[in-house]
Design goal:
Layout lengths: L2 E9 L30 H12 L3 E5 H10 L8 H8 L2 E4 L11 E4 L3 H9 L4 E5 L2 H9 L5 E7 L19 E8 L5 E7 L10
Parallel strand pairs: 1-5, 1-6, 2-3, 2-5, 3-4
Antiparallel strand pairs: 6-8, 7-8
Length: about 200
């Protein structure tokens, strides 16, 4: 069974919506698109690019798929991130799409947990980028092996959040961390079973 890695860019208050640009995702009246850009630097960009270079397959929810499919195929072929995302096998979990036109994409319309378990069996590493609603389904079904989180020093106050109401209580183990010049913090967690509790008294 391969490893499923969730990759997420998020504000300090957990908002994941629209990091890449003003028009990326205005759903629900979200007005803060592009909030990641002021904190992007060459060093963190290289870490992100190196990680993407190593993905074997990509798993996306409908909304993130639509954003990516409208952007990455139009980028220059010499862009290494575009080349990897465009060339990688892609699996799209959606109840509303009938077809997926981005090259190498396949639609998951049946039982998501069962389908994702099969995909994990076919690859050494499957990456999820964004796709907050899908991530909740994956967590509920114990399918996430690693959380690759990029946290930025900004509070947005509204927008879609990664760990919203209904998140399954889960213990995590920090396996790697790094900070970057403009304030980004990179945190990599592995799941560590159920939370344990005690007293500080």
């Amino acid at each position: 069974m391969g490893e499923l890695v969730v990759n997420m860019f998020m504000s300090l208050d957990g908002v994941l919506q629209g990091p890449g640009g003003p028009d990326e995702d205005g759903e629900g009246g979200f007005e803060y698109g592009g909030w990641q850009a002021p904190y992007f630097d060459e060093e963190s960009g290289k870490v992100i690019a190196d990680h993407i270079a190593g993905l074997e397959a990509l798993l996306l929810g409908r909304r993130t798929y639509e954003i990516f499919a409208a952007y990455w195929p139009k980028q220059p072929a010499e862009n290494p991130i575009a080349a990897r995302l465009n060339g990688a096998p892609k699996y799209v979990a959606s109840r509303t799409l009938d077809t997926v036109g981005w090259a190498n994409s396949r639609l998951i319309q049946s039982d998501v947990a069962e389908a994702v378990a099969r995909v994990k069996g076919e690859f050494g590493r499957v990456d999820v980028i964004g796709s907050g609603n899908l991530v909740q389904t994956l967590l509920r079904n114990d399918l996430v092996d690693r959380l690759n989180l990029w946290v930025y020093p900004v509070l947005l106050g509204s927008g879609k959040r990664l760990f919203a109401e209904g998140t399954v209580p889960t213990a995590l183990r920090l396996v790697e961390s790094a900070t970057f010049s403009k304030g980004a913090v990179h945190l990599i967690y592995e799941r560590a079973g159920k939370p344990t509790f005690g007293s500080m008294a």
